[in-house]
UniProtKB/TrEMBL annotation:
UniProt cross-references to Pfam families, sorted A to Z: MFS_1
Record has S-adenosyl-L-methionine as a keyword: no
Transmembrane segments: 30-47, 53-75, 87-111, 117-140, 152-178, 184-206, 240-258, 278-300, 307-326, 332-350, 371-392, 398-420
CDD domains per UniProt: MFS_ShiA_like (cd17369)
Protein name, per record: MHS family MFS transporter
SUPFAM superfamilies in the record: MFS general substrate transporter
Cell compartments where the protein resides: Cell membrane
Keywords: Cell membrane, Membrane, Transmembrane, Transmembrane helix, Transport
Residue ranges annotated for the Major facilitator superfamily (MFS) profile domain, each copy included: 15-425
Domain of life, source organism: Bacteria
Length: 449
């Protein structure tokens, strides 16, 4: 009798902890840069550009996104050939080292043009790491999960993003509160980058103790690895790659208003709110995002992945105008309310993602498919979302131009969900073929609890 492809009890807990811990650390590192781009880098590294300094600073956030697909291709190929766990360790190490080095780069006033060049190169390394990280973490969680709990298990690597945002904003807020504005700009902002060294060690210890995905073990045991996963993926499943990317782009563009630093920058520079106050408000919203992401994953196991996405996109669309109206009041209480409800739509369009992507692709190309859909969606949605938002607001004089841009992206995501099919509960081992045999949304899939 074939052995089961899911584990139970303590192993489940170790897997979800490893998936969540690793993505938390990865995204803490990523968000520290994105937030600092709006608060610090324009003056420390791009001040010579005058009025364009902030836009270029945000653009460096986007540059790394073009290297996410490269990281996804490399990690996807190796993840489909040699396993998920090795890639998780490698990507975590790459992200940590590059983050610590960013904290050590002197300002442009000290070493001239070498400073922004070094900053951009290290940001590119962050992009390579982020491109390969998510697919492995998502698959490790989902491929260990019982069939009827994949949405919930897959939500744990997803909550690494709001937890990373919470941690990044929390550390920056603490440093900002303990330093004067001049001290924060001179050296205080470097502390969160250097702290990444401690987090990386903890993450590597946790991930090294987790077993390989049972689905990949089955693939390896039956010698079912694809020789060239990327070729097979685009030959047979390119449409799924495109649709998956559009769905994520719609979430990512809206999410990067806070994770990319646009809201923080707008609130501090234009509305003249205190930096530490704004960071604290974003931390509160990150908690709401965490809860709604878990709720989205849990609900996806009950009503289907795509139904939860559609609910989330509708909420996201309806809240955009009220969100910017409340933001423009420059009232801290209303800012918190705006961010809290903003987070609900984000969670429902993010929580089911790991399960949706894992069930879209056959086991032999699953890492490549999930990672590349995710990376391309990040490029299309999040890469230059803060830059576009800043440019639209500056050129029109109103944040409602930003609102229109985000509404358009949300509608695209909603349309893309209509072209996808729900594969909830389909076998994830080598016998399954998600692209060919979808499970009706109303069916209640079996599986060990």
């Amino acid at each position: 009798m074939a052995r089961p492809l899911t584990r139970t009890g303590p192993e489940h807990r170790r897997v979800v902890l490893a998936a969540m811990a690793g993505t938390t650390i990865e995204w803490y590192d990523f968000f520290i840069y994105a937030i600092s781009a709006g608060l610090v880098f324009s003056t420390q590294y791009f001040a010579a550009l005058g009025e364009d300094a902030l836009i270029l600073s945000f653009a460096t956030v986007g540059i790394s996104f073009f290297f996410r697909p490269v990281g996804a291709v490399i990690a996807g190929h190796l993840g489909d050939r040699i396993g998920r766990r090795a890639m998780l360790v490698l990507t975590l190490l790459l992200m940590g080292v590059s983050t610590v080095l960013i904290g050590l780069v002197p300002s442009a006033a000290a070493i001239g043009v070498t400073a922004p060049v070094a900053l951009v190169l290290l940001r590119i390394v962050q992009g390579l790491s982020a491109g390969g990280e998510w697919g492995g973490a998502a698959l490790l969680a989902v491929e260990h999960a019982p069939a009827d709990r994949r949405g919930l298990f897959g939500a744990f690597p997803q909550i690494g993003v709001p937890v990373g945002l919470l941690l990044a904003n929390g550390v920056l807020a603490l440093v900002a509160a303990l330093t004067t504005p001049a001290q924060f700009l001179a050296w205080g902002w470097r502390i969160p980058f250097l702290l990444s060294a401690v987090l990386i060690v903890a993450g590597l210890v946790i991930r090294s103790r987790v077993a390989e995905s049972p689905v990949f073990e089955e693939v390896r045991r039956t010698r079912s690895q694809a020789g060239l996963p990327l070729v097979q993926l685009f030959r047979h499943h390119w449409r799924l790659v495109v649709l998956g990317a559009i769905v994520f782009a719609a979430n990512n563009a809206v999410g990067y208003m806070t994770t990319g630093g646009y809201v923080q920058s707008y609130a501090v520079r234009t509305l003249h709110l205190e930096r530490s106050t704004v960071l604290a408000a974003v931390m509160i919203s990150a908690v709401a995002w965490l809860v709604s992401t878990l709720a989205g994953g849990w609900l996806a196991d009950r009503i289907g992945r795509l139904r939860v996405y559609r609910i989330g996109f509708v909420v996201q669309l309806l809240w955009l105008v009220p969100f910017f109206a409340l933001l423009d009041t420059a009232n801290v209480g209303l800012l918190i309310v705006a961010l809290l409800l903003f987070s609900v739509g984000l969670g429902f369009t993010y929580g089911p993602q790991a399960a949706l992507y894992a069930e879209m692709y056959p086991a032999r190309v699953r890492y490549s498919g999930a990672a590349i859909s995710y990376a391309l969606g990040a490029v299309l949605g999040g890469a230059f979302a803060p830059t576009i938002a800043e440019a639209l607001q500056s050129s029109t004089g109103t944040v409602y131009a930003v609102c229109a841009y985000l509404a358009g992206m949300t509608l695209l995501g909603l349309i893309a969900t209509a072209a996808l099919r729900d594969h909830r509960g389909i076998p994830l081992d080598v016998s399954g073929e998600p692209a060919a045999t979808p499970l009706p949304a109303e069916r209640n899939p079996g599986g060990a609890a």
